[in-house]
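Something for you to look into today, if you have time. Just paste the record in under my message, thanks.
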Amino acid sequence: MAQKEIPTVLVGKKPLMNYVFACLTTLQSGANQLVLKARGRAISRAVDVVQVL
């Protein structure tokens, strides 16, 4: 069985709204799921992105 690939947004140092728009664009393109990945200090930014969504 081939598994469908889940889109991923990598959160880093860019402004918060860049990641929000990337997530919205991915969801508008028909994706039902989305994965946000972050490391270190960017984890709090990833949490902020999810709260804005």
Q: What stands out?
A: Residues 16-28 form the longest helix (13 residues).
